[in-house]
Write a structure and sequence with these properties.
Layout: E1 16-18, E2 24-26, E3 34-40, H1 47-61, E4 66-72, H2 84-95, H3 114-122, E5 137-140, E6 146-150, H4 167-190, H5 200-205, H6 210-215
Parallel strand pairs: 3-4
Antiparallel strand pairs: 1-2, 3-5, 5-6
């Protein structure tokens, strides 16, 4: 686990990745956009809830400067077994995803995609920088810097705060909701056979919101 290795890049915009067909995509095209970067899987117990809310979140914010970058990954119990194009077709057909689904990547280990090495080094998790499970989320600001890291059970819509709420009140409500959720559902979630180990402190520590990023 240990500390996160340093990386030379200072912004996500310095990276080039592959789209689902293997073509290069320079992430510099997203300068000026707020990004939510997610490692996705089609056969995970959290697939439906996360994909559904990612679609809703994108509809709410795509015209305000949000882009969602989805990276299929098969490292967690082989829950993304098909090709990159299979993953794209699944997301677009089943969940009407309009955001890009990129080429399958590894997110952990020596062969992890460079962009994921950057994300993890920028925002390590509570138990080290490894990605713990599918649907880990990174919120990136308009300049390409990582603002927050969210575990699998943080619903995409939970990162959203209504614009009318002042940040202090929004933070208080989010913490209250998170504590209530953990107390009521914690035993069921932790008892999932293949569930990641997560700590409430990680989620509270990394509480950054899309609305705040939009106006930064």
């Amino acid at each position: 686990m240990g500390s996160s290795p340093s990386v030379p890049e200072k912004s996500i915009h310095e990276f080039t990745v592959k789209d689902s067909r293997g073509q290069d995509v320079n992430l510099g095209i997203y300068k000026g956009k707020v990004l939510l970067v997610v490692n996705v899987a089609s056969k995970c117990g959290f697939t439906d809830s996360n994909y559904t809310q990612l679609t809703d979140l994108y509809k709410n914010y795509k015209d305000k400067g949000l882009e969602i970058l989805a990276f299929p990954c098969n490292q967690f119990l082989k829950q993304e077994p098909g090709t990159s194009e299979d993953a794209q077709n699944f997301a677009c057909t089943m969940y009407k995803a309009e955001y890009p689904i990129f080429h399958k990547v590894r997110v952990n280990g020596p062969n992890a995609a460079p962009v994921y090495k950057f994300l993890k080094a920028s925002k390590p998790g509570f138990l080290g920088n490894r990605i713990k499970w599918n649907f880990t989320k990174f919120l990136v600001d308009k300049d390409g810097h990582v603002l927050g890291r969210y575990s699998t059970i943080t619903a995409p819509m939970a990162i959203e705060v209504p614009p009318s709420l002042p940040p202090s009140l929004a933070n208080m409500l989010f913490i209250k909701f998170t504590l209530s959720f953990a107390l009521f559902f914690g035993n069921r979630l932790i008892s999932r056979k293949h569930w990641e180990r997560c700590d409430l402190r990680e989620r509270l520590k990394n509480s950054m919101y899309i609305n705040q990023a939009m106006v930064a």
